[in-house]
Structure formats: structure tokens, C-alpha cells
Amino acid sequence: MKVIIAEKPSVARDLAAFVKATSKRQGYFEGGGYQVTWALGHLVELQEPHEYDSSLKKWTLLTLPFVPREFKLKLRKDDRVQGQFAIVKRLLLAADSIICATDAGREGELIFRYIVTHAGCANKPAQRLWLSSLTPDAIGTAFRSMRPLADYDNLYAAAKCRSESDWIVGLNATRNYTLRFATAGILWSLGRVQTPVLAMITRRDDEIRTFKSQPFWELMTKYCEVNFRYTGYRFDQQSEAIELLKRVTVQPLVILKIQRKPESSLPPQLYDLTELQRDMNRRYGISAADTLASAQSLYESKLVTYPRTDSHYLTTEVQKNVPLILQQLRTIKPQEIDKLDLRKLSFGGRIVNNQKVTDHHAIIPTGTVSNGLRDREQKVYDAIVVRFIAAFYPACVKEVTTVDAVVGKVPFRARGVRVSTPGWTELYPRKSSDQDSEDQQSLPEFTPRESGPHEPYVKPGQTSAPKHFTENTLLGAMDTAGKLVDEAELREAMKDKGLGTPATRAAIIETLLSRKYICRDKKNLLATDLGRYLISLVRDQGLKSPELTGEWESKLKQIEAGKISADEFMHEIAAYTHEIIRASENVQLDESKIGDCPCCGKPVVRGKQAMGCSAWRYGCKFVLPNHYRNVELSHRQIRELLQRGVVSESINLGDVGNVVLSLTPSGTIVEIPVPQGNEQNHSQDGTKSKSISGAKRSTRSRKTLKDGASDKSVAPSARTRSADKPTAADLGGCPLCDAPVIEQKKSYSCSRWQDGCPMTIWKTIAGKRITASMAKTMLHSGKTGVLKGFKTKAGKTFNARLKLVEGNVELEFEN
Fold first, then answer.
1. What CA–CA distance (Å, rounded) separates 428 from 676?
2. Burial level of 746, CB count in 10 A (0-12/13-18/19+)?
């Protein structure tokens, strides 16, 4: 018996009908020598940390980073899932051979391999059914082209690396930042892809918030109802523009030269998923997730080909079917298709290219038509059909006319465009607003040397801030690892280094929305206060870097192609995860300097009224005042702003409430309101003290975390968990809760630290080893004597006392 595993019941029904497995059983179809069953998406997933080691159920910095030597699998906790897996496993154990018919791509491969591995059937004979469409002809072609499952081992290796790397980075970064920086139960969720995307949105919002619009003026003139523009620079001063205006007012305009040349605009390329999502968002405001859901529904209804593709091209095999598909679409688009000669279609390299089709070809209609679609699905279907037809239309040819003129010795130019052959643009009627541009004006028949009176004027303008991200532009930036590239060919060259894949980008956006790190404002996507605060806290630049994540995605594609090994990639991920923890471990301010200028990187120096950039003589205007909204900033807070970009403690602004201050890369202070109920603890801070407190630990239950990975382990509440047994003799009573203080691997901590008590004395402070007797002295008398051997980051030694203030360790300097 051959067992076929599909990803969804609807696909299983189509496959069962094709192989004539007509008998419906519980959880599968049977007949013709086949049993056709299905997954329900991911039946099997990676185990949680506490399932490797029960001690990992409690969140603690001492167990980080955690990287399993070998990942283990488990069933999803869902009665329906577990029931279906039991059926699938029974069929697999009895099968003579297996056919993988899950979605043909990275995630589909992962779903199948995890199922057969967890069922103990990974070594059974298996083949791969690679489906790009669910029509009977496409299914027949796929069955005739089946290949051994082993041919797809590299695809599985890439999928497995993606899954495990997201798990490792997501788990460790989330626990690390939650334990170090959470207050009153905030859980900071970070991920390999979601955090760089959030950083992009936050950076764009900061650029807009701190943008200072500058006025400018342009010199224009009107001649024969045509607008001419001065070809020189724009004016920063209105007086300069008016001065030139006076010179041209009294002289006639003379036409010097007329140039006409044709310009061709090629049809847009066929859709990949990202371009389809961008187009639907641009035209109708449909979200990326909703576009994907509609495209998936159209695929399962046999109306379009597989949607989760990153290719704009067709293969030569698919090329053979194109005339028939267009003929079938004639019933719904008769006028559009009648203009094509289906016997002589032009297949250029922008349409057919076998080398640029990896998992799947571009999204095209199958030729099957339906009139009963919902509004959103109809819009998506129409867009795919029209784009497919447009690909075979001729180019749009425009005649671009440039007219050079002069007034005295002042040069002017007018430009006009006339469409001579509309070509593919007939299928995309232009809005009237598109024709209002000065470059689109119609020009009369000018002749060289003609002249006459004109109407000069000065046109004021303002420089514009960057635009907020929409889903359209964010998807474009994710496609090119943060670089906004409009040209299709350049996007094609850079897409191997995108953030995520076309199949996962919509889910990343929805994840950020669900966690309230971003929000929708009409079509715009904006960072929330919570999202901006999180990005301010993240010290490791790699975790916020689109470029680094893009490099990882590129390496996953190289694993698919067999060019690099999975072990090499995972070693890099493990090393980077250690770096995430190391970057935030025992983070201390550099007392030897105030900080560096966020604008130019030069040292900041102290002035009478404020801090300022030392490069002020060379034009840097950065200034950081000593007061913010009538609240005096301490030396420590100023250093935190300049060295870390965020103040670790909230300040109270009266009616505004508690806020955290963050410093943007442009040098502007931004207020981030602390979410209600999550105000940070305040500790005393004076000019002679430096806070080096332990991590603030969350006491609330941890929720499910997903960025392709999850951490579903729960840190039990204070009411249910008990303290760990001491690892050494008690050193004294905790100044906060009176529980015993015990020695840990890297610190002397309150024995009730899992219950949320933050009292910690680190074993290394400012480069000096802190002994148990020093800790005991602090606990009994509140401070030590003067200790020698502390070091600044610059390597300079200094002397200081250690003292405990509300459970935090502070340095008290001799002078």
C-alpha cells in the first residue's frame, strides 16, 4: 500500500480523486492501492526547553544561552491534531512506500519530515510529489515527474535550520531581555526576523518625528499655456529667487531646441507573492495576510497556481500551457484576449527563465474560471488574470518631448509626454490625477527661435519627510533587507538577502501587530511606545540589523542549493546567540567619558548649561540639556542616554505620568510612556553613585512566543513555586525580603529570586572580583570599606566602596 500525505484535507481530496481512492475512511481516503491522508499544518513541532531539562521551566539568566545539542520533536497539544497524527502514524507504519504531497516548498518539506521522523518511519522508501497547481492535468504531470525524497534533503536541511535558528534566537533573546529589563510582568518578545523589522519601522518613525522641513523656492514661467522650469538649482532663500525673477520679467522667452525621442515601458513581470501583496495593499489597502489567505483559497479552488513563490518567471514546461490558459480565460476577458494572437505569443526572457524558478514558478491563473468569488478574492483573482494577460501585450511607447528655452541668459526647460502606443497600459486605466503632473502636460508645436512674452513666477515648496511604512513599502524593504528598491530587476538581484521569505513576511507583520509593538493608522504601520521602548533596550546591533538577518536568509538559500552545510550555519547561529547574552551581561556605563554624539560619533563634552558635541566647530549642532521638562537629569541618566540610547529608569512628568527617555540616532529625546501598571522601580541616584543593580525579574506567567519559534514554558507564579536549595551557606538576610542570600555561579542572590526578588550582587563589578566576604559585609553593614582594583573600560584603575541601596549595588567614590 502507498500512503500519500497532503498538507490539508482539501488537497487530499483532489489527490484521492486523481488516484481513484474513493472510499472515505476516518482521517483518510482509500482505493486503487493508495491511502491518502493529511496533516493539519504542523502536527509535530520542536520540544520546549523544560522538556529537555525540567529546571529550564524557571526563567533564569544562569541557564542562558540554552542551545540543545540535538533538537527533539513532540506533538502539538491539540486533541484534533493528536487524533489525526495517530491515524497518520498507523498508516505509515503499515505502508510499503510513502509519497510526500505537502506544499512544495521549505515549510511543506519540514511538515512532512517532522511527521515521518516522529512516527519512526523516516527510513521507509519515499518519493516527492511537487505540485504547482491542483488541476487534474497538473496533478498528472506531478505524478509522472516524482523524484526520490532524498533529492530534497537540502531543502529539508534549510527548513530545519530555519526552524531551529528561530527557536534558538527567539528563546534566548526573549528570556534574556525579559529577565534583565522586564518590570511588573512585561514580557519582551524578540526574534531573528521580527526584531529587525520592528527596528526598521522604529527608525523610520524617528526619522519622520525628528525631520525638520526646509522651505525652498523654484523659478517657473508659463509660455503658451506650458509650464517651464528654471534648470538651475532650487533656492534656499526667497530673496535670491525674487532677484532672478526680476531679471527674467522684462525679457521675452526664446525657444532654443526641441527634442523628441521614443521611450518604451515594458509590461510588468508576473506576480510573485510579495509583489502581489504589495499591489493589493497599494491599490485596495488589503493586508499582506489577507492577500495570502485569498490567494491560498484561489489555489485550493484550482483557480490559480501555488501562491507561496518568490519567482516572477515561468519554466519552458509551463510555457506550453499558456495559449490554452489564455483561451480558457477568454470567457471572462474576451476583449483583452482578442487583441493577442495566441499562435504567436512572444515569450521573452522576462517571462520564461528556467534558471530563475526554484521551488515554484510565478503566480498565474490555471484557466479554470469561477463567478462566485467573494469581493476580496475577486480582486486578487482579477489582478492575477490581468497581470498574466498584460505580460504578453506589447510595450507602451511614449514620445517624450523636451523643449529648451532661454530668457536672456537664464535657461528654462519644459517636458511633455504623449503616448503613441498604449500597449499593456490599456489594461490599467490611469487615474485623472496621474495626468496632472508637469511632466505629463501636452505641448503645442513649438519651432526653434520662436519667442514671445511669458509669465514668470516663484513657486514655493517644502522638503518632505520620509513616508511612514505601509504594508506595501514594508514588504518591499523586507524583500531587500531594508533597502527600498523600486526597480524590479534590482529587487531581483537583492531578493536572496531579504528578511524572511514571501511565505512568512505577512505572518511577521501580523505578529508585531498582535504583540502591540506596531499598530495600523489607516494604511500606515507605526511603532507603538512599547515597540520603541523594546528597540531602545536592545544593545546588540546584530539583533536589530536587517543586513545580518538578510545574510542569514541568503545562507539558508545556499543550504537549499547544497553550497554550504547546515552545521556551518547552525554553529554561526549558536555563536551569535552567545554574543546576544554576552552583550547585555554586566552592562556597565563607562565612567571615563560622558558618551559619544549620536549624530556624528565624536565625544560629548560638558558645557555650562548642557552637554554638547565636541565637533561643534565643524558644524555638528547636537546639544543635550541638563534639564528635560523641568526635571533635572542626573549624570548617570545623561550617560545612559548617550552610551545606551535609553534611560534604565522611568521619570515622572506629572500629568503625563511615568515615561522612559530614549535618544534617537538624530539626537532627539523621545518620551516613551511606561504602560500602566508596569512602572519601573526607582532607585536613588546621586552624583557620587553608580547603579549596577541586578536584573529585574518578571513574576508573571510567560505567554506563548512565536517568530517561527516559540517558548511555551511557563515561569510559575510566586504562589506556586519554591526557592531553589542554597548552593552554599547563607551569607545574610536579603535587605528587601529578609530571605537568605546565597552564592550562585555568577552572583550572590536572594534565595527567592525566582519569586521576583531582584537583590543581586554580581561576582564581577567593574573588572574586580567580589568575594563572598565582601558580599557578607555589605549585607550586614550596608557597605564595604574602600576597595582597590576597579577598572574603567579604558583600563584605568580606581578605588571605591560598594554599598547596598534598596537591593542595588552602587559604587561610592573616595572623593
1. 50
2. middle
Burial class (CB in 10 A: 0-12, 13-18, 19+), 649: buried
Sheet with 747-750: list strands edge to edge.
Answer: 732-733, 740-743, 747-750, 760-762
User: Is residue 802 pLDDT above 60, yes or no?
Assistant: yes
State the CB neighbour count (10 A cutoff) for residue 438. 13
Helix (H, G, I), strand (E, B) or coil at 146: coil
- pLDDT band at residue 587, thresholds of 50, 70 and 90? low
In the β-sheet with 28-31, what is the strand arrangement from edge to edge? 23-25, 28-31, 34-38, 2-6, 97-101, 126-128, 147-148
Rounded CA separation 386/270 (Å): 10
Strand partners, 45: 74
Residue pair 790/766 in contact by the 8 Å Cβ criterion:
yes
3-state secondary structure labels for all residues of 70-131: CCCEEECCCHHHHHHHHHHHHHHHHCCEEEEECCCCHHHHHHHHHHHHHCCCCCCCEEECCC
| β-pairing verdict for 518-521 and 410-421 | unpaired
* 3 state SS of 760: strand
Task: Indicate if 306 belongs to the active site.
Answer: yes
What percent of the chain clears pLDDT 90, i.e. is strictly above it?
56
Number of H helices, E strands in the chain: 22, 36
Dihedral sign computed on CA atoms, order 3, 9, 12, 16: positive
Half-sphere exposure in the Cβ direction for 6 (13 Å, CA): 21
At 51, the amino acid letter reads E
146-173 pLDDT, tens digit per residue, is 999 999 999 999 999 999 999 999 999 9
Among the options 152, 177, 230, 306, which is catalytic?
306
Q: How many CB atoms lie within 10 A of CB 378?
A: 15
What is the distance of C-alpha 570 from the center of its chain?
Answer: 21
Q: How confident is the model at residue 705 (pLDDT cuts 50, 70, 90)?
A: very low
CB atoms within 10 A of CB 54: 10
Asked whether the beta carbons of 811 and 788 are under 8 A apart, the reply is no
Helical spans, DSSP H, in 730-809: 772-781
C-alpha–C-alpha distance, residues 39 and 80, integer Å:
11
pLDDT above 70 (res 195): yes
